[in-house]
Write a structure and sequence with these properties.
single chain, 8 strands, alpha+beta, about 30% strand, about 35% helix, globular
Amino acid sequence: MAARHPIELSPAGLLRRLGLARAPAVTAGFGRVRLYPFRPANWDEWAALRGASRPFLAAWESTWPEDALSAAAFRKRVRQYAEDWDRGSGYHFLIRRAGDDLLVGGINLTNVRRGIAQNASLGYWIGAEFSRQGYMTEAMNAILGFAFADMKLNRIEAACLPDNAASRALLAKCGFKEEGRARKYLRINGMWQDHLTFAILHEDWEAARLRPRDPARWP
């Protein structure tokens, strides 16, 4: 598969076809991974990885609708993500391995609040075959560089199920501090479940020097 370049991943024409004015012409990188915005052409590989990883992911995610992996549902997802980007309320990325451009997962910032808040919520998933290999740690470092250095946010929040040891370890490794327990925080796998809440501040990130190794490029 040919390597993707930022200008190829988010041309202005794509968002014009989606009825939006501003193109997310951006990548971010750290170590072995690169982050790219979604585009309609990504459906087949995204659906293949999500489908193969469904048993691995189901315990940590909301219940999948029947058409979760369909092309139509993916186009709707891409349109919503582009609208979120255009409004500045959310930023969704695919995670690709730098060496061969292979899709390994996804990561996002949602519920972006400006004004006196300057914060956002972090979400992420990794394909089953790529778990526990350090890819998500590097992707998280890349998106934190985007959030703090480029978006000038002050606080990034995250949450995970108490028994998700891998996610808890990941957040701690990336500089997040555990702040408490939120009762019935999200409906996961068909049930309202408590979550542990975490956050990292701009000053925490600065102190840890978790900076992207490759400069991010923004429009």
